[in-house]
């Protein structure tokens, strides 16, 4: 017991004396260091704690908030929420071999998820292999989702309720990055275990892609023996920003069992564009995403299960003060605005030829304070209009949110 105690004390002292916490981005090989940082580099572009003689770098972030919300005048009162805590670990196994894992604890360990756990092998800057639990690169938020990077307490509706946010799967694929003068470009292509029938067989009683995350078996087998393909290309310029195009698609239904044909193969496909830029003169940051979802819904399902869905968001962040606040020398005070829209059922009723409504529109003004680049305090007011399937007058919700998110 004495030896263990001495060792523990020694380790703590060693960490205190020899470790260094750096706000610099962790770079792993040529693929991350050349040219402009892209969204595809987000998993490595984080602050890590690196011990001098240990090959392991560790880090993480946490998010907590207070919320007071009412919908049509009815609410649940005052609420404190511990949204999530995430840990990530990275190591260079050998020259041009690196491994990174990301584990997320949501809502006070109500959910525990391995979001990323993959080995990267670099052949050249334009050709790298990634295998393991991979975060499917659909749009940009799915890869670049760390709370401290955003001025808003809630994640975008389109990223969490239209697309399956932080969606990851077991598989492998290739990616690469290059640059030419002021331009950087990158690509990713992965094959992973596929969709499942939760897309339409879910508690939401509608076409709902996020429900596929409920199938935990996807980390050990494909639901129907089919693979899910995800691909993305990105192009960035130091003056104009980054533009990305992505696609994710595959068969989602159980079309055969022990050789017997049960149904035809039914696909679900997602197409997305994303864009981010900074107006250098004003230091204004703009982030935008838009996605289209196309699902082959069986004819036996009612029209409340949408065959086409669309949605996206735009964030605008404007620094209004840079300087000393409460003794923090490099504080930044931001004013921000998020506008978002999702239509879960883009179509018409066959019987009346009238539009199927089921959509949501939300606007969120925000004030944020960043005492350091790695920590953000957020004050949001979220107001949204939600329309049901039949297009009845929308339900209205307002929410005051105060939150903090920080890397550690």
Mean pLDDT metric:
89
State the low-pLDDT regions, or none. Answer: 1-31
CATH class: Mainly Beta
The proportion of strand residues reads over 45%
Largest sheet: 16 strands, antiparallel, barrel
| Shape estimate | globular
Number of helices: 3
Order of helices and strands: HEHEEEEEEHEEEEEEEEEEEEE
Which fold name corresponds to the CATH topology?
Porin
Tell me what the structure shows.
The protein is mainly β and 408 residues long. The chain has one domain: Porin, CATH 2.40.160. It has 3 helices and 20 strands. The strands form 2 sheets. The protein has a 16-stranded antiparallel beta barrel with strand order 3-4-5-6-7-8-9-10-11-14-15-16-17-18-19-20. It has a two-stranded antiparallel ribbon with strand order 12-13. The N terminus is likely disordered.
Summarize the model shown:
With 408 residues, the protein is mainly beta. The chain has helices at 2-18, 30-33, 157-162; strands at residues 20-21, 49-50, 56-71, 74-94, 97-106, 111-124, 127-135, 168-180, 183-193, 227-237, 241-251, 256-257, 260-261, 267-279, 284-295, 308-325, 328-343, 359-372, 375-387, 395-407.
């Amino acid at each position: 017991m004495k030896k263990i105690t001495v060792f523990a004390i020694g380790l703590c002292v060693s960490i205190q004396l020899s470790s260094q916490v750096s706000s610099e981005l962790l770079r792993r090989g040529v693929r991350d260091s050349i040219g402009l940082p892209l969204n595809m580099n987000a998993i490595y572009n984080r602050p890590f704690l690196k011990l001098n003689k240990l090959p392991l770098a560790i880090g993480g972030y946490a998010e907590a908030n207070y919320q007071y919300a009412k919908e049509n005048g009815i609410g649940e009162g005052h609420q404190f929420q511990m949204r999530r805590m995430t840990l990530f670990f990275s190591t260079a196994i050998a020259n041009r071999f690196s491994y990174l894992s990301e584990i997320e604890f949501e809502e006070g360990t109500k959910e525990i998820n391995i979001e990323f756990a993959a080995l990267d092998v670099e052949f050249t800057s334009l050709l790298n292999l990634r295998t393991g639990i991979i975060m499917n690169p659909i749009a940009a938020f799915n890869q670049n989702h760390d709370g401290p990077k955003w001025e808003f307490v809630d994640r975008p509706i389109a990223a969490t309720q239209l697309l399956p946010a932080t969606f990851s799967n077991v598989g492998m694929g290739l990616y690469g990055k290059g640059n030419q003068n002021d331009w950087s470009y990158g690509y990713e292509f992965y094959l992973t275990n596929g969709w499942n029938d939760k897309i339409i067989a879910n508690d939401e009683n509608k076409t709902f892609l996020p429900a596929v995350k409920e199938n935990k078996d996807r980390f050990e087998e494909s639901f129907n023996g089919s693979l899910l393909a995800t691909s993305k290309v990105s192009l960035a310029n130091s003056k104009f920003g980054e533009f990305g195009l992505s696609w994710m698609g595959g068969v989602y239904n159980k079309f055969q069992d022990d050789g017997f044909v049960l149904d035809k193969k039914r696909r679900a496909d997602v197409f997305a564009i994303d864009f981010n830029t900074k107006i250098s003169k004003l230091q204004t940051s703009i982030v935008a995403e838009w996605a289209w979802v196309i699902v082959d819904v069986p004819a036996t399902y009612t029209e409340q299960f949408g065959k086409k869905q669309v949605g996206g968001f735009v964030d605008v962040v404007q620094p209004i003060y840079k300087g000393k606040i409460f003794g923090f020398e490099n504080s930044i005070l931001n004013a921000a605005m998020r506008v978002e829209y999702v239509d879960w059922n883009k179509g018409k009723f066959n019987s009346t030829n009238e539009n199927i409504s089921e959509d949501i529109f939300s606007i969120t003004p925000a004030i944020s304070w960043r005492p350091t680049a790695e920590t953000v305090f957020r004050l949001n007011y979220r107001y949204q209009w939600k329309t049901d399937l039949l297009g009845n007058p929308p339900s209205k919700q307002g929410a005051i949110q105060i939150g903090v998110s920080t890397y550690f």
